[in-house]
Amino acid sequence: MFRSPVIDPDRSIAQPSDWIYRRDIVRPGSKDVFESVMDLAKRRGFIWPTSECYGAVAGFIDYGPLGAMMKRRVENVWREFYVIQEGYYEIECPTIAQEAVFIASGHVAGFADKMCQCPHCKEFLRADHVAEAGGIKNAGTMKNEDLSLALAPCKCLACEEVLGKVEVFSFNLMFGTSIGPGSQRTGYLRPETAQGMFVDFGRLLRFYRDKLPFGAVQIGKSYRNEISPRQGMIRLREFTQAEAEIFVHPNSKNCHPMFRRYADYTMPLLTSDKQLADEPTLTLSMQEAVERGIIANEYVAYYVAMTHALLVKIGIRPERLRFRQHLPDELAHYANDCWDAEILSDRFGWVETVGIADRTDYDLNAHAKASGTPMTVFIQYDEPEKVPRRRIIPNMGVLGKQYRNKAKAIFDALAESTPTPEGADVVVDGEKIHIPKDLFEVRDEIVDVRGEEIVPHVIEPSYGIDRMCYAILEQAYDEDEADGETRVVMRLSPKVAPVQVAVFPLMSRDGLDTMAREIQETLQKQNILAEYDDSGAIGRRYRRQDEIGTPFAVTVDYDSLEMQTVTIRDRDSMKQVRVPVDRVPGTIRALVDGKVKFGEI
Q1: The predicted structure's pLDDT at residue 12
Q2: Burial class (CB in 10 A: 0-12, 13-18, 19+), 371
Q3: What CATH class is the domain 499-600?
Q4: Residue 10 pLDDT > 80, yes or no?
Q5: Distance (Å, rounded) from C-alpha 428 to C-alpha 451?
Q6: Which of 144, 459, 501, 593 is 20 to 30 A distant from 113 in Cα terms?
Q7: Which fold has domain 113-172?
Q8: Do 1-18+39-91+201-376+455-480 and 499-600 share a fold?
């Protein structure tokens, strides 16, 4: 889903553009931990500036060894919900598509942001961001010339000089390229993964045996040539999306087959009415939200609740998570309802991270019209319906001889015409032709209609994986005291921690190291990422693992050799419990999977 201030007020879901960089948006009494998180992330191998030796380019990042592993774990939790639980198969489409795809989707004409250039420092700026920083509301919906005048007293976000007279113009955010030699075909790097699933609709329909509902999912890179990305992982020019396109019958959106799974799921909702009245969120179950008409239908409510459950599972705190409904003036003209999952950041305020939209039949109709390929599903009725039908039967012998090459086109046009007592008028290749009444027969019949062709509606949950990763890092960062000194600890959920358990020999001799290596190998056979470390004092080793978020540590000491037991340490509480060696793999597996808590061992 994309925002197009030129065409309509649709908003970007996985790479939103509706808020600005603000250092002063911080929760009361909280510490802005952005610098600490980013310092740790670069130092310990979570996130690095890309091509740093040549001078990093804004809007691009590298995931280091720990960051790449954490990101994969986040993606796999997403798959647990959408592929395993929901049964939606994953596909993979190219990141480059021909121009026709994006003409049909509206991206070529309308995927643009408003831009201006500071006359002092020559920095290019998002005009609506400058306006919002200056207290100007609804900048995204203003005309370019009106916004130019409104920006005169505003300050540049880069050099903080008053802008004065500036020109606001539209800047298309897609990266263009050529396909093949000689620039014969124009292509674009995709700004979202969704279009690949829409143009694959016919293939997907056959894969799912021509039955609704069905869905397809995709995780992959998307690209947007952002004007002035200044928010680290929050605004990137290359980013990862995880999107699902669920195709449903237009008349069955209140009949989700598994709605009972989340019907009683209760969560805070910031409705459009509450926003307009400047009132706080409303806590409701999904059943209540649908019955009261707050959420448009069961399908949207289902994925709102599922998204909440998914985000909490990867470590987002419920008190820092809200779902905000799009206001009437920001809802896309083709959307029936849209909710954004917003996560509260100490540095950036409420950050849009996931969007759940009812996109109706807009996308399939657009691609069907542009490509000439029907994107419909035949829905068979339980019982055939008796329907009156008027059939026009041409005298093919006479018409065929008279019109020759045009005969077939005339037959087709005649079948769609409305005859009069004098005959019928048809248009073929721009020529109006009168067919006398004695050259065709009109029959009124009653026929059995066994079904109908319908264009499905699309429910789209769209996730910004990079924003989810940043939120995880920021919320996990903590400092406490251990052994009389400050301990930096990343309280990552075991589901997404890159290293799941560390294995330490108390000393790297006397057989302790051999036993520790054997335990590490046993854990690895259970598909658990276990890191062996025998460098330095045991306390220093604990601190290193705490800092990268490793949730558990197994320590082999001299009692281990005699009693065949080891200690398992919990990162958050720093408590330890001694367990038999043969129970270690099963215990760690259960802890990582969340089947038991450390206090229950």
Answers
A1: 32
A2: middle
A3: alpha beta
A4: no
A5: 31
A6: 459
A7: Rubrerythrin, domain 2 (2.20.28)
A8: no
The structure tokens 């796999």 sit at 76
Give the span between the Cα atoms of 548 and 285, in whole angstroms. 37
Long-range contacts: 79-87, Cβ < 8 Å, 24+? Answer: 79/217, 79/219, 81/306, 81/309, 81/310, 82/215, 82/217, 82/242, 82/244, 83/217, 86/215, 86/244
| For the chain, domain boundaries | 1-18+39-91+201-376+455-480, 113-172, 379-452, 499-600
Token duo for residue 471 = 């939120």
The sign of the dihedral angle between the CA atoms of 389, 390, 396, 401 is: negative
What is the CATH code for 1-18+39-91+201-376+455-480? Answer: 3.30.930.10
Mean pLDDT of the chain: 90
In this predicted structure, what is the pLDDT of residue 183? 65
Which residue type sits at 468?
M
With b for 16 or more beta-carbon neighbours within 10 A and e for fewer, the 42-55 pattern comes to bebbbbbeeeeeee
pLDDT, position 184: 76
In this structure, which topology does domain 379-452 adopt according to CATH? 3.30.720
pLDDT score, position 28: 37
CA dihedral 10, 13, 18, 23 (to 10 degrees): 180
Cβ burial, residue 378 (10 Å; 0-12/13-18/19+): exposed
Q: 482 versus 88: which is more confidently predicted?
A: 88
